[in-house]
């Protein structure tokens, strides 16, 4: 999977995470809202219907009592019809809005007593009653009280339901808060783990690559990258390791070639037919020909990497060869004569500065010195 695809999936994961939390929040808010709406829509309507019926039955009862006990009362049948119609309308609404246990039985009781009350109020029944005050107190008023008792009971049932549902809504809100808090905490922990973890997925391989490249620049060819993935980092790891193997092989070949050439150069210099010394730029001896060892009588002395000036302190011929380097003015002429087996041999020395081109091709960088002895003459003593 490519890094681009992983980045897209990572951002999609964050988007899905936020959508998930948002949908959960909306769900619980909607659930609480629905519960509140049910409380308002059902129970409050039943209470309202009950209150309207109580007002209407009180008006109807007042009409009947005034008709019986107030001789000056002028009955208005149209007004009575309005109260009866209003009671009937609210009773029908209540019968169609039964929501609580026992409410249906109470509504049925109201219906039965209301129908009974209407029949007791009819003109045919009223005209046949001689003791109207007794009829009112013994028949009509107890029926009205039965109706009112049932209506009060309906109001109480719905009021208790409101309290209960409100408590349930509060419990739901509390549980929703806890659940949302847990979900939000989990997702925020995942989010922060992702924020701190995913950049490392990109940055760590880059840091490792930079370190390994620096090691390669310092000729450490043993480093390897081990990203066994199918993305670009895996491809880079494989390509990097292939390059390191090739560089290691090339470096081994170059080293072996240089060593061979060095051995060849040393062999050539060692076998030169004239005494030769090779010094580095710090005037340390790095190569000596066999003739120079014999002539300087230093065959059994390890000269390599020793300071030429220190060795010359105990060897006049070597000091003569280095006179221009060590600024020794004890030699009046540019020749040096050695006597061996009654044969005098006169030598002169030559010094050549060994250089190489610098980074800027115009500059010349000294890297050492070649000092040799040239035979001028030979005679018998």
What this model shows, in words?
The chain is of the alpha+beta class. α1 packs antiparallel against α5 and α3 runs antiparallel to α5 (132-217). The chain is rod-shaped. 67% of the residues lie in helices and 12% in strands. It has a five-stranded antiparallel β-sheet with strand order 2-1-5-4-3. The chain has ten helices and five strands; from the N terminus they run ααααααββααααβββ. The protein folds into three domains: 3-193, Four Helix Bundle (Hemerythrin (Met), subunit A) (Up-down Bundle); 219-270; 271-380, Beta-Lactamase, CATH 3.30.450.
The ordered string of helix (H) and strand (E) elements is HHHHHHEEHHHHEEE
CATH topology type of the largest domain: Four Helix Bundle (Hemerythrin (Met), subunit A)
| Overall helicity | 55-70%
CATH architecture label of the largest domain = Up-down Bundle
Strand order of the largest sheet: 2-1-5-4-3
The total number of structural domains is 3
Layout of strands and helices, then pairs:
Blueprint: H1 3-69, H2 77-95, H3 103-120, H4 123-128, H5 132-217, H6 232-270, E1 276-280, E2 285-288, H7 290-295, H8 308-312, H9 316-321, H10 323-326, E3 336-340, E4 343-357, E5 364-380
Antiparallel strand pairs: 1-2, 1-5, 3-4, 4-5
Helix pairs in contact: 1-2, 1-5, 3-5
């Amino acid at each position: 999977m490519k890094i681009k695809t992983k980045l897209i999936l990572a951002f999609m994961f964050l988007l899905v995470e936020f959508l998930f939390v948002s949908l959960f929040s909306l769900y619980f808010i909607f659930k609480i809202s629905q519960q509140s709406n049910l409380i308002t829509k059902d129970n409050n309507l039943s209470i309202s219907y009950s209150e309207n019926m109580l007002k209407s039955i009180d008006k109807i009862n007042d009409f009947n009592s005034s008709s019986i006990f107030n001789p000056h009362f002028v009955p208005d049948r149209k007004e009575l019809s309005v109260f009866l119609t209003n009671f009937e309308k609210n009773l029908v609404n209540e019968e169609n809005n039964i929501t609580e246990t026992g409410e249906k039985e109470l509504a049925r009781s109201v219906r039965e007593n209301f129908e009974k009350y209407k029949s007791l109020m009819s003109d045919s029944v009223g005209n046949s009653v001689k003791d109207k005050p007794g009829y009112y107190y013994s028949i009509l008023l107890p029926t009205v009280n039965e109706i009112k008792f049932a209506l009060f009971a309906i109001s109480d049932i719905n009021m208790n339901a409101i309290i209960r549902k409100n408590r349930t809504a509060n419990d739901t809100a509390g549980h929703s808060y806890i659940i949302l808090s847990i979900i939000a905490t989990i997702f925020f922990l995942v989010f922060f783990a992702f924020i701190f973890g995913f950049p490392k997925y990109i940055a760590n391989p880059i840091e490792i690559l930079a370190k390994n490249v620096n090691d390669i620049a310092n000729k450490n060819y043993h480093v390897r990258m081990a990203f066994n993935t199918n993305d670009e980092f895996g491809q880079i790891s494989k390509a990097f390791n292939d390059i390191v193997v090739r560089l290691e092989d090339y470096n081994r070949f170059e080293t072996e070639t240089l060593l061979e050439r060095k051995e060849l150069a040393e062999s050539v210099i060692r076998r030169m037919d004239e005494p030769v010394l090779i010094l580095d730029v710090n005037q340390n001896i790095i190569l000596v020909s066999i003739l120079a060892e014999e002539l300087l009588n230093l065959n059994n002395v390890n000269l390599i990497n020793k300071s030429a000036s220190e060795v010359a302190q105990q060897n006049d011929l070597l000091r003569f060869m280095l006179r221009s380097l060590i600024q020794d003015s004890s030699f009046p002429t540019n020749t040096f004569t050695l006597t061996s087996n009654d044969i005098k041999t006169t030598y002169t020395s030559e010094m050549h500065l060994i250089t190489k081109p610098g980074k800027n091709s115009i500059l010349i960088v000294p890297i050492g010195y070649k000092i040799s002895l040239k035979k001028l003459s030979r005679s018998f003593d």
